[in-house]
């Protein structure tokens, strides 16, 4: 049975509804990541689960019990805040021990648990320090320590890494993933960073404007985004979109024409589409290969910008069909210059196709049949 | 981190120093004056700032010690000044603690809880407080006169009654503390409630320790305000032994005989508890107690 279930959850602030009918199951042991652009409601849903906001309508169940009306203290949760939210007047030890002290645990147990947590997090030499003398990464570790000593049923993380610098973010991300494995705990993690979401999640929930767009394993969402929003949100650099028209369709393939008149063969189940329909073709930057001449499945364009990253090169290409310019990730040794006209070839099964309502057609991937 | 300044600033430096010195003189002159009067023999308001002859007669009276004057007459202290001082300190301390307890709890409610008419109540307590206390004296007297019939220790001429009347004046303190509470990130209290603390525990263990500087400021203000309060104390307290120093000192200045010297000694005496409280509170009035808890 699922550890946490959200059924038809709505949240209104005044007259404005910001969370619309969210249904979600979080299984025991999941590291469930909520990801979406800012303002999509991911933090609000987390706060609803924590009990820091009242649920307007719907049912929130934990361990099979409805907890809508329970205060945060009675939900057996721990939360790590974006801003750390440490108690500034307490030293590290007392910060971590606070919850246990409130719960009136015996001193020996408190000492044991805090020492255990500070061992895991490498905070042993800082136990007497006040938060203000710690660095950002150390503060965040104290916040995590405060969460784990209480051994709750559910951990909530609200963008815990967004205040850390890039190197520390990667390191702390790894530590959280290890912690998840070590504790086998159920975690809900909110982030706007899709890389963080991809690397951490066992289940990923993509949100937009207070609605769940898609739920699934990170790689499933990456390979089979259910709509154009999810496709564009996951992956970096983001997926390129081209405006195309459907020329021919069957259950194995759709043939579409872009605005240059080039034909593209797309391996999707296209039976539901109607001929002449305006569609969106999607292709990820790493699936574009430089070729010498135009054939089917090529995109023609003029290079606007070359970004050499060392191990690879990103080229920004102006094409007639794409709404924005296309980005292609090509080998570093490719000889391309600003202003060159290039042809970029795509394999049929690397395309994504979205109908006029931006819903994805089912992709036929060769390695899955 | 001194900023490099041109030579032109020398003149403005001198001007600033001169200005500060003049201001200091303005502030300190009355203070030296009153010390001088208290040390001068006889009861004269005027005279040179540095007394030609120093006499402790006024101080002896203020401290309750009899002395012999030039003609060999034994002069007894006319008033129990030390009792008044004790009364003042006692009333001011109790009042300041009670004001602190009431205003922190109500400030917490106004800063953090949601209830109807919050804004209206906040504004109206402030507006009501603006009504001059002197104009309510007659009402205060009749209220405590009646109250005393039912609860004797809260009636007229009791310290309990006076303290109760002072507890009505907390609106400004509520506003002050509320402003400070609102500057403390809510996250920290949310963290405490996730950690299992109830509202009162959050208030006590998390919010209050972070608010110590403002609590000290309010305590000092309430203490001083009570210590120097005259109008209400003067109508609620009658018996000589019951008076506060502020009310009692006035007895030195009766129509036909202004005992300026004795008055001055009592006045300097009344400044001592204020100074003491200031010195004690000072080390708590520091900034930066909330630093490090959250990323700003």
TrEMBL record, chain A:
ABC transporter domain sequence ranges: 4-234
One GO CC term on file: maltose transport complex
Protein keywords: ATP-binding, Nucleotide-binding, Sugar transport, Transport
InterPro entries: AAA+_ATPase (IPR003593), ABC_transporter-like_ATP-bd (IPR003439), ABC_transporter-like_CS (IPR017871), ABC_transpr_MalK-like (IPR015855), ABC_transpr_MalK/UgpC-like (IPR047641), Mo/tungstate-bd_C_term_dom (IPR008995), NA-bd_OB-fold (IPR012340), P-loop_NTPase (IPR027417)
Gene Ontology molecular function terms on file: ABC-type maltose transporter activity; ATP binding; ATP hydrolysis activity
Keyword Magnesium recorded: no
PANTHER family, alphabetized: MALTODEXTRIN IMPORT ATP-BINDING PROTEIN MSMX (PTHR43875), MALTOSE_MALTODEXTRIN IMPORT ATP-BINDING PROTEIN MALK (PTHR43875:SF3)
Name of the featured protein: ABC transporter ATP-binding protein
Species whose genome carries this gene: Leucothrix pacifica
Automatic annotation (TrEMBL), chain B:
Alphabetized GO MF terms: ABC-type maltose transporter activity
Location within or outside the cell: Cell inner membrane; Cell membrane
Source organism, top-level taxon: Bacteria
Signal peptide extent: none
SUPFAM superfamilies on file: MetI-like
A Gene Ontology cellular-component term: plasma membrane
GO biological process: maltodextrin transmembrane transport
Pfam families in UniProt: BPD_transp_1 (PF00528)
Keyword terms of this UniProt record: Cell inner membrane, Cell membrane, Membrane, Sugar transport, Transmembrane, Transmembrane helix, Transport
Membrane topology, record value: Multi-pass membrane protein
InterPro entries linked: BP-dep_ABC_trans_perm (IPR050901), MetI-like (IPR000515), MetI-like_sf (IPR035906)
Chain ranges passing through the membrane: 20-39, 91-111, 120-143, 163-181, 202-228, 258-281
Main location: membrane
Domain ABC transmembrane type-1: 85-281
UniProt family annotation: Belongs to the binding-protein-dependent transport system permease family. MalFG subfamily.
NCBIfam families: PRK10998.1
Function field: Part of the ABC transporter complex MalEFGK involved in maltose/maltodextrin import. Probably responsible for the translocation of the substrate across the membrane.
Protein name: Maltose/maltodextrin transport system permease protein MalG
Species of provenance: Leucothrix pacifica
